[in-house]
């Protein structure tokens, strides 16, 4: 076979080639696409190398008559399919062999090809069709081997794509055609597909590798394409059922390009909100992307590898949604889609591509409350998946699972680590040692351990690790990075190691502050308003505007000990903050007067924050005008009774389903069974002392403290 193949290649490299030669070569490539490819490649590597380089030259030679042969299309399609299959054969074919076969020899050669495409007056010329195949395969190669982004040839190709194709009026003209609702009926030319598919795909894979340099900054690219891009998404996403194959490819690679481009641009100072400039635009964009992934007919075409439009489309959309969740504060908007869990779980089940099912579970774990995740019975799936992938990435010499760097997993796990089921799973499997091993190499792990250390079993496991405790003690005194030292102090605080002794929680006249405001620094503007109004009314208020330095835990404890009341500023960011959690816990431990206020529109307290605040009443600053909400807060701070009109209870779904316990038989209560209505009527008349006696008789000691100011009317309102 080798001799025959070599002879065919010699014939093919002549200026004139017969249709019979092309047909025989086509047959060879079609017969060796499957498992036999590695063995076939071993036999014919040298002649194949000659042919691959010949093809690039054919694209650059205007006088070559190859493209005029009747059997030429089948030959190029067969060789392109062979090359694509070669790219995704990851085990038995070396990257060096793939590079030698698929990457062209010189930049001058590539420039000539690009110039021919640009100047070609026939938009459906076969040259452009064939070039599309070859440049797309280069993109797949770069995606599978991100290290190739450093090769000068790859850098040049993508900078050329950006300057001479993307940043042109012709590209914008082609985009404007996609803004039309009837774009599915367009008969796309080869040149249109080169601009709208090949060019964005190449830039997508290039920016995905996170290159350190690029000839163009983010601003000119966004300015050139943003408006048309957003319009296309809003029009075409809701017509997904009618997409043609060509339009599917265009939408896939435009979305993929914009996702990876913005991901790269974050390090250049251009954030996501440079494209999605208002919350309404952001929400409309999310709604459009979610509508696309709801379209189930695409599911059957999802592959195990990043090798077709459907797989790339869903991968790009889910990565885009993950980026939005991690950088924009709109978890509430995702929760408003009641079908989201069903769609993502179905998608995760349908896809064998690792990033699709990983992102599906990741989005659910980011936006849904722990209680909801438990209802869906997927907490074990999430726990096992993330632990396994994290361990595989850690044990990999390059610290990656496939193409995902361990740093990405750790950033995702940081948020997951706030959930009880992750803490319990970490404790049960004793995986805390995994994070202890990682912390020297990845400082973010100290924050993860801090979050996990709120679990009592993990606290005990950490206390038993004497070398780690010694390391924490040393870092507490010597660490130069503020965030590391803060996390280390937080861990030691949770382990009750090196805590300073604090005074009795009894309030004395020596306290320096009437109020302490506990908040996340992302909620600073509204907190500043509250602070200004309180100080204007002569309250002595402690608030950390500049973020504390030194031993922040002791500083926090001192501030709480010296304050009569603590305002807890509830928001998604507050719940996610380890420091805020420690602060809230300590305030309750010291039995300070707690006044929760809701800072974030649409947010409902969940997780540990719901557990801690679930029996308290809060002032809703998102429902009322500031002055009205402030009036409610002032009454709450100064009142001896709970003001049922001015505040709203934080009640979990479970709490709402619990029936009111029967009234205890004491000297101050009714001594015979009552109906629920009668019982409520009786409770309305109770004074504070009767409420306390009722709680004590029912062994609700914690609630005695939490409801110390409640009379019967407030108790019924809370229920």
How would you characterize this protein structure?
This is TIR domain-containing protein. One of its GO terms (biological process) is signal transduction. It is a single chain. By secondary structure, the protein is mainly α. 61% of the residues lie in helices and 4% in strands. It has 37 helices and eight strands. The strands form two sheets. It has a six-stranded mixed sheet with strand order 4-3-5-6-7-8, with helices on both faces. A two-stranded antiparallel sheet has the order 1-2. Strand 6, helix 31 and strand 7 form a beta-alpha-beta unit. The N and C termini lie far apart (84 Å). About 6% of the residues have low confidence.
Calculate the terminal CA-CA distance, rounded to whole Å.
84 Å
Question: Which stretches are poorly predicted, pLDDT < 50 over at least 5 residues?
Answer: 640-681
Strand order of the largest sheet: 4-3-5-6-7-8
Q: Provide the β-strand percentage band.
A: under 5%
Largest sheet: 6 strands, mixed
Number of strands: 8
DSSP helix fraction: 55-70%
> Could you say how many structural domains there are in total?
5
**Overall morphology:** elongated
In a few lines, what is going on in this structure?
This protein is mostly helical. It is built from 37 helices and 8 strands. The protein folds into 5 domains: 1-102; 105-277, no CATH class; 373-495; 513-637, 3-Layer(aba) Sandwich (Rossmann fold), CATH 3.40.50; 678-717, no CATH class.
Topology summary:
Blueprint: H1 2-12, H2 19-31, H3 37-60, H4 72-87, H5 95-102, H6 107-119, H7 126-144, H8 152-166, H9 169-178, H10 190-208, H11 218-236, H12 245-265, H13 279-293, H14 309-327, H15 331-335, H16 340-350, H17 354-367, H18 370-376, H19 379-395, E1 400-401, E2 404-405, H20 406-416, H21 420-428, H22 432-438, H23 444-452, H24 456-463, H25 466-478, H26 482-494, E3 513-518, H27 524-536, E4 541-542, H28 552-561, E5 563-570, H29 572-576, H30 578-589, E6 593-598, H31 607-613, E7 617-620, H32 626-638, E8 648-649, H33 653-656, H34 676-683, H35 688-697, H36 701-706, H37 712-718
Parallel strand pairs: 3-4, 3-5, 5-6, 6-7
Antiparallel strand pairs: 1-2, 7-8
